[in-house]
What we know:
This protein is α/β, with parallel strands linked by helices. Helices cover 41% and strands 18% of the residues. The protein has helices at residues 2-19, 49-57, 75-78, 91-96, 114-119, 132-146, 149-170, 198-205, 222-228, 239-244, 255-258, 267-271, 277-288; strands at residues 25-28, 34-37, 44-46, 64-67, 81-82, 84-85, 88-89, 101-104, 124-126, 176-184, 189-192, 208-209, 219-221, 232-236, 262-265. A hairpin with a 2-residue loop joins β6 and β7 (88-89). The longest helix has 22 residues, at 149-170. The N and C termini lie far apart (72 Å). Mean pLDDT is 90; it is low at 1-19.
Amino acid sequence: xxxxxxxxxxxxxxxxxxxxxxxxxxxxxxxxxxxxxxxxxxxxxxxxxxxxxxxxxxxxxxxxxxxxxxxxxxxxxxxxxxxxxxxxxxxxxxxxxxxxxxxxxxxxxxxxxxxxxxxxxxxxxxxxxxxxxxxxxxxxxxxxxxxxxxxxxxxxxxxxxxxxxxxxxxxxxxxxxxxxxxxxxxxxxxxxxxxxxxxxxxxxxxxxxxxxxxxxxxxxxxxxxxxxxxxxxxxxxxxxxxxxxxxxxxxxxxxxxxxxxxxxxxxxxxxxxxxxxxxxxxxxxxxxxxxxxxxxxxxxx
Length: 301
């Protein structure tokens, strides 16, 4: 009889755990903080585009009630209440939305929200997107924090399968030297990649190499680009921005410019560390290695 009661008790505990989705649960964020969620979040404030896109992609988009002013994608979420922008973020605005989770990245003073949010009892999860491996890890962490583990794991599996497919096509083919411009100033200085980060990973996985990877500065001049003599030039931006490079003083003498080996990719696919980084890898690989990635042919009518 006692054993039967123990079995019944274990069954009831199991059913209760299943009913609340395994909450409360504790996760560890990028700052090493233990963040406890007492229930599946139903009112999430997501600061920065990458966090919005990851939450939406794992199935938690409907729970997002607040974003920052520069959120553009997905369009329906971008229209939701704003909690700040370039000048900072408002704890009061977050509190008015009755948020039960805030997801942020330590940039543009967002990390200063952590302590005041903690004082008023709103859990804050800080993510750091160092490289593509961290992006995948953050997707998994958000799945755990929101109760969308299945959606997160499915998303990671799809992303990894697409990345593996690109690598299979590139196997055995030498990489291409690429100057990837991420921005510019009106003083003849240009922004590019240095060191190891998620955009560098995109370039590497697309079959490219960065001549400025060892530079201590992300800002370069035209002479440095000329000396690097890249085989291709890619602009993180619009076709119009890419076309304007040839009009810069002296740039027409660069081999890549003279040969018209200049292309663009939307900056969101290269500079936002979310699920669309895989689109960036695929599109960049097709530009750098067109012989391996023929254009998609529409079926005959």
